[in-house]
Amino acid sequence: MTQSGSPRTAASLVGDSLHVGYGGKSVLAGVDFRLEPGKLTILLGPNGCGKSTLLKTMARTLSPDRGQVLLNGQAIHQQSTRTVARRLGLLPQSPAAPDGLTVRELVALGRFPYQSLMRQWSRRDQVAVETAMAQAAVTEFADRPVDQLSGGQRQRCWIAMVLAQETELLLLDEPTTFLDLKVQVDLLELLLSLAHEHGRTLLVVLHDLNLAAAYADTLVMMQAGRICYQGEAEKVFTEASLAEVFDLEARVILDPDSGRPVCLPRRMGQAGSVLQTATA
Hints:
By secondary structure, this protein is α/β, with parallel strands linked by helices. It is about 35% helix and about 25% strand. The chain has helices at about 50-60, 80-85, 105-110, 125-135, 150-165, 180-200, 210-215, 235, 240-245, 270-280; strands at about 15-20, 25-35, 40-45, 65-70, 75, 90, 170-175, 200-205, 220-225, 225-230, 250-255, 260-265. The strands form three sheets. The chain has a six-stranded mixed sheet with strand order 6-7-8-3-9-10, sandwiched between helices. A four-stranded antiparallel sheet has the order 2-1-4-5, covered by helices on one side. A hairpin with a 6-residue loop joins strand 11 (about 250-255) and strand 12 (about 260-265). Helix 4 packs antiparallel against helix 5 (about 150-165).
């Protein structure tokens, strides 16, 4: 639902045969990708596999050499920045706020797509900021400088800024990096609630395998610029896929409470003995 109470429009974001590279080096080669509306999709893959490149291309930060990204059926790179910003919010890696900027001021920056010479700050903008701070649980810090908060608190403030854009789509690049485990869990709970309770569509890049498997509605595994696996974690998070994508020898078990898969890395010297036992 939007802050006005009307149903949120289901937005679509599709990557069609995306070829993306840097300095003549190919990073993505013919990637097809579609976000599922109202779901939390998590991108996994080893360093340098292209997951951040894919997210940036889907967010219009990077332009593909070939192929296109379609936002609501129209080429995203042919739409204006303001138009895209009213549909799609992006939180890049390790954002930094100017010294002394308060939480309320930072979150208010999320209203930039709606400001112009003809339209100044309004009651709707104020409601959007207050609602975003409440959703991200940072209202109590509203008048404190962002640079005086903990890492987890600051990250929630940045998420609140993106929420203040009132977009249907949210793309976040490694939002849990350098945060304590409990803070990471709290953030993922927030992101999941945004999808399931508020109808947002989220694409998130993560590094932690088990957190991704625990929270993703759709799990996407990338390797060497291509999508190797995509689907429910229970189906794609397997010993075989972890070995192929991450070169990781691991045992995958199911959590008895959630039924979600959990990765248990095998120590050096254990893989062979386990395999021998299994084939004996």
